[in-house]
Amino acid sequence: MTEEQVLSLQLDTERLAVFFPLFQAGVGLSVATGCTVKELLTQQFGIPEAYILSRITTIFLNHKAVDDAAGAVITEGATLALSGAMPGLVGATMRTGGHLAALRGAMTYHNSAYPVAKGRGQIRLKLFNLLLDELAPRFLEHGILIQSGELRELGLDADVDLSSWPDPSTLLTLKIQTIRKSP
Questions:
Q1: CB under 8 Å to 117, separation ≥6 — which residues?
Q2: How far apart are CA 76 and CA 134, in angstroms?
Q3: What is the value of pTM for the model shown?
């Protein structure tokens, strides 16, 4: 087993937008698995339940719409996508617990009939629209899994010496503390 390599940076909040395309494509996170989506967001990432109910209006787990964040279980290798309100009929249909949810049919998430073991694992997290600005800093502070080559592509060479990781496939946990510039 290889030792986890952690890279910690401080970046101005204005520079965090460089990570938004990664969040839209999906970033890796090391998390406790076997918990519900609600437990993941509230207990592991400290996101207030009121925020989840008011701002995260669309949740997908493994590419299926979730109606009950307190019941949908996170498993090893899961993909979790979070979005604010989406416009139109599609947005209304995909909305968590929305009136048109019945129109989704097979696109609605259901837990596996098999028991899920609790443990540590990796998931892929995707963020969209207003949630990028609001939640990306929280997940970056927790740490995202990223290959050293992806850091080079983001243009962070001025912030960190990447020569320590000559292999672009080296997996790192990137933790970013955001700082605000004084006006």
A1: 33, 34
A2: 25
A3: 0.84
Strand partners, 7: 174
- Candidate from 30-34, 42-46, 154-158 with smallest mean pLDDT: 154-158
- Asked if 77 and 125 touch (Cβ cutoff 8 Å), the reply is no
DSSP bridge pairs for 61: 64, 80
- The structure tokens listed for 94 are 């995909």
Per-residue b or e along 56-80, where b marks 16 or more CB atoms closer than 10 Å to that residue's CB? bbbbbbbeebbbebeebbbbeebeb
Residue 57 CA to residue 18 CA, distance in Å, equals 24
Tell me 48's DSSP state.
Answer: -
Rounded Cα gap, residues 90 and 76, in angstroms: 29
- Phi first, then psi: give them for residue 9, nearest 5 degrees: -135, 155
* Tens digit of each residue's pLDDT (9 = 90 or more) over 19-38: 999 999 999 999 999 999 99
C-alpha 40 chain-centroid distance = 10
Say if CB 101 and CB 58 are below 8 A apart. no
